[in-house]
Structure formats: structure tokens, C-alpha cells
Amino acid sequence: MKNRSFDFSEPLMGWHETLAVNAEGLVGPKGEMDVRGEKPLNATNPHYLRVRAYEPGYSFYNTGFRGMGVQSGAEYRFPAYVRSMGPKSIRATVTDAAGKVLASGKLEGFTGQWQRYETVLRAEATDDHAQLNLILDDKGELDLDMVSLFPVDTWKGPPNGLRKDLVQLLYDMHPGFIRFPGGCIVEGRQLLTRYRWKTTVGDIAKRQTIINRWNDEFDQRPAPDYFQSFGLGFYEYFQLAEDIGARPLPILNCGMACQFNSSETAHMEDLHEYIQDTRRGLDEALWRPWSQRRDPGEPKFAERKHSEAVGRTPKSLRHTGKANGREDSPKRGRGFP
After folding, report:
1. Confidence of residue 287 (pLDDT cuts 50, 70, 90)
2. What is the pTM of this model?
3. Where are the beta strands (DSSP E) in the chain?
4. Class assignment of domain 15-151?
5. Considering only CA atoms, which of 208, 228, 201 is closest in space to residue 46?
6. Which of 85, 195, 286, 335 has its CA 20 to 30 A from that of 212?
7. What Cα–Cα distance (Å) separates residue 14 from each residue in 58, 61, 68, 165, 225?
8. In the chain, where are the structural domains located?
9. pLDDT for 140-171, tens place per residue?
């Protein structure tokens, strides 16, 4: 789903009204939609979609990223947070480019408070460029947030887990380690948009969307829809490493933004925050048994064997990173050398 929480720079990017055509030409929509910020789902998910249906049948859709791929016989979870001021249901269909319905379902039983609803859609055919359509069969207003469409059958089965085909390719390579989430992505163009591991764990609906480091990096190849929603966060990366038998190699920011963009560095008096984030992350990764950590709602993760890297290779010596690997290290004291 593109822009599932309506927090892109262009809040309606990825979302479009369905326009009908008759003998006289285009028929105007039966309602309207806009992005709001009053009384949001939560503080870190500050925007949502307000939908107004002036008559039954108002419809809008999302095509994902160059289309949504669905497989015949496969099931897909369709969840959303909804707050209604009238309509009691939303009908969902997955269609191909010709408008043929490939799957359908309904969310219903809405109230005037934010609640999460979910149903499962089963595809009757395969299509690489499908779209999700949402239809209001009642007049009135409702609010939507965190709209998703996700395969039920994931790697090792967890809801909203990883794609089986992609993880299988990684597993078959027998990697010794997985480095995540990357290098430049950790730095960000500015420190304000750096990768912070603590904001990528816990309740997915509370993981704040930020712009991706590569969104506007290249003039000849703009990617205005490239954002980070953190459905794949530090917890999922650690889980992936264990699932395929690889060591996790987490990368953490040491107070330095991309040197090829802003070259921003944290003031010395602000480095304590970076040090504490690193200490907490590495301590919890080392000492909390992973067998007890299969719930992404608890923002702690663990791994018995690990490699670790702090910072990045700097272009200058203003900030210097440190990298090392270890196995079954002895327990450390409260501070670091």
C-alpha cells in the first residue's frame, strides 16, 4: 500500500477517486476526501483520511507501487483503523486493470472511536498490477488510517511478516550476517531525519513515517513516493537474522548526518542521547533471551550471538565510528570504556 498512513509530503499521494463515465462524459464523484490532523490516531501518526460520501457508492482506490501483485488462491489481510460518523461498513475489492474483481471483502461494525478492523480477501486470479478499491455504501463521513493489504502466508507465518519468496532467496544464500538497516539511511540527509532504532519498534501504528534518504537524492531519478513507514524495523531485522541463521549486524547513528549532503554533526553536549540510544540497543540485544521475544509490540529485542557496528566510516575525523564483532561476550558494567 502506498502512503497507508497519509503522512507523505503530498498527503494524498497514492490515493485517487474513482470517476465513472457515461454517454455524456465523465461523471463527478459521489463524495470527497481530504487529509486531516485533528484528533489523530496517535501523536506519532498525525494524519488520517476524512471521507465524505454524499450518496451511496462513493469509491476511491490505491494502486500501490506500480501496481499490487496478487496470486490466485492466496489470501490477503485487509486491516484499517476506522472512526465513523455514520457509515457502518467499507466494502473492499481488488481489481485488475480492466476492472475485473479478483477479491472482495468488508469491514463493518464501526463506532465513533478509533478502532482497528480486519478482514481477509482471497484472490481468484493472478495479476501483477492490481489495485485496492474502497467503497462506501452509506452516506456520511468516516476517518481512515493505517490501511494495508498484506499476504496472510508469510515467512514462518507471523501476521505482517516478510515475503516468503524474498526471504527464501536470502536463506538459500546461507549468509553469515545481515547488516541493517544500511549506512547512508542511518545518517539521513540531516540529523532530524536520521534512522532511530527506538522509533522503529513497538506498535506498528505508532512508528512515525519519515522521508527516505534517497527520496530526492538524484535529479535525474526522483523518487517522491520513497518514504519509510517502518513496517520493517529493528525488531523485524533481528527476527529475520535469527530465522535464516545469520548474525545481526545493526548500524547505529553516532551523531553524524550524510557528509555528501549536509555534513551535519551533533554538538558535543548532545552526544549523550546518541550514546544512550546505542547502549540501550546493544544491551537489550545481548541480554534478553530471543526465545521470549516474538511479539513486535514489546520494543525490546535480543540475540545471543551478534556482531555490532556503531557509526559509519567518516569522510573527516570530526566523528569516528567504531566497529567490532564478538561472540558470547562477558556481561559488561553500567558504562563503556
Report:
1. low
2. 0.85
3. 15-17, 20-22, 25-27, 31-36, 48-53, 58-62, 68-70, 75-84, 89-95, 101-108, 115-122, 127-136, 140-145, 150-151, 177-180, 210-211, 227-228, 247-252, 305-310, 322-327
4. mainly beta
5. 208
6. 286
7. 17, 8, 12, 25, 8
8. 15-151, 164-327
9. 999 999 999 999 999 999 888 999 999 999 99
